Amino acid sequence: MRFVFLTSLLLLTGCFSYVGSDKDMHYAAGALTQHYVTKHTGSPVTGCLAAVGLGMAKEAVDSRFGGVVDRYDAVATAGGCSFAVEW
Known about the structure:
This protein is mainly α. Helix content is 76%, strand content 0%.
């Protein structure tokens, strides 16, 4: 779980800015989170909820510490769960 947190943090803070646009990084972080949580819990719903929670948490941090709050960032992160989910 620590790996997912650190990787998501790096993706969301722009440390990998060469990857693409901000929304692309949010989408990738959501897909990574969904895949990792689903792999460890066996539940795609839990993985998708983790991606949604990650997006909301990142926007909460932005609002608390003076970052730019963009609801579409949270939507892009949550949308990443659709990439790897197998219903």
